[in-house]
Amino acid sequence: MSAKPQAGIMGWGAYIPLYRLRASEIARIWGYDDSVVKSLWIEEKAVGGVDEDTITIGWEASRYALMRAKIDPGEVGAVFVGTESKPYAVKPSATIIAEALGIPPQKLASDLEFACRAASEAMRISVGLIASGMIKASLVIGADTAQASPGDVLEFTASSGGAAFVIGDPSNSVAIIEDSYSYITDTPDFWRREGFPYPEHGEAFTGEPAYFSHIMNAVKGLLDKSGLRISDFDYVIFHQPNGKFPLQVGSKLGVPREKILPGIVTPYVGNTYNGSALLGLARVLDMAKPGSRILLAPFGSGAGSDAFSILVLDRIEERRALAPTVDEMIKRKSYIPYGEYVKVRRKIVKA
Amino acid sequence: MKDSAPRIWRMRNNLYRIRYSKCKACGASFYPARASCIRCSSRDVEVRVSLGLGTLVEYTVLYQVPARMQDNAPMVIGVVRLDEGFELYGVIVDADIKDLRKGMRVEAVLRRLRVDGSSGLITYGIKFRPVIGAAHGEGSGRG
Q1: Disulfide: which of A65, A113, A143, A189 matches A57 by Cβ 3.0-4.6 Å?
Q2: Contacts of A231 (CB under 8 A, 6+ apart)
Q3: Which of A59, A322, A324 sits opposite B110 (nearest CB)?
């Protein structure tokens, strides 16, 4: 390791809305061939209810993370919301979530935007704040109600959900953040202009120069910096815009499939953007044995990737049952037709 | 209609959390929170925040709702008995009407209560939904 561990994950929480839309239903409505669905490895996606948004999703995940962290909300010195679907263009989501959780005013709070990796950057920021002694604990939330233009291939995967983590004192944590590394460039693979409801993307350009290049550079950078090898990790979690990409980048990095599959959630709930890789991390924390080492590599368009080495501690066993697991939320579902989806996701413009 | 920013701001503590009173003299719990006990009139009461876990006592389904809530129809309104020992009305979400039953375990969640057009304020507050997962609160760490 390049440095002494200075922060850990004290608690984790996830939230996946109840409603599901089958990928086959989207293909039927827009005339896609079934091979498109298979090529993405997406079965269905989670759809937030009519009264759900990034703030309510973030609040749910945070409540579960605080339960597992077993700390008083008054100890939280920072609240960061990583999202690209803020309910307000101007007015922070973090303040509403913090107030509703009973976190007192003496704190930092802001919404961060970097496509799907803003919450990942918030984790690195939090490690720095805790290591410097500025705060005791930080609440990091990755949540989205991901937008996709009706009929766009993106609509197969863009979904709603999120995860939250309390980052804090390593001596009261369930896992240690051993090391981390970031790799960021100006790459226009995916964007959404101010005031426009749906993002645009560079089709195949989102692959090699964006997703694959940045994740591979971040992971290689972490390995060089830490002295660790891929074989030192028991679980490997990548950003998952679909089910196929994480397996492909894993193959390029020499990661066995069985180390990637436990952290894959997108085929069952869709791509929750800022929640994507972090839901994978939550699922792995639901099952990982003490002593396991996790490699986490989220990615955000624009573009950047962070790689984290996370070591699971004995304390994790006593914290698991304090909140619902990701699998319990994956299994809790109610299917809706496309018509109801466009209503609850506010895609119908009324007079 | 324009929702009033000062009104939402003043109400936020009661919108975001279930604040109730616990009488130290006779042990009664009651909602909403107030300065004197509704049972013994003692003023030795303290305001607490409910953990939000409870049981559905009764419910009804509204098909005709105010125009600005049309997106939420049909709405289920229920009486919930919180584990702390008091009852309140609330909106029940994420439950298929045919699966609703008296005695089902529910928990308080933060949801959108009102949305003021496309440029006004969004009001958030407490609704109830069936609990998630095997740990149903009673005697578990989630209590």
Answers
A1: A143
A2: none
A3: A59
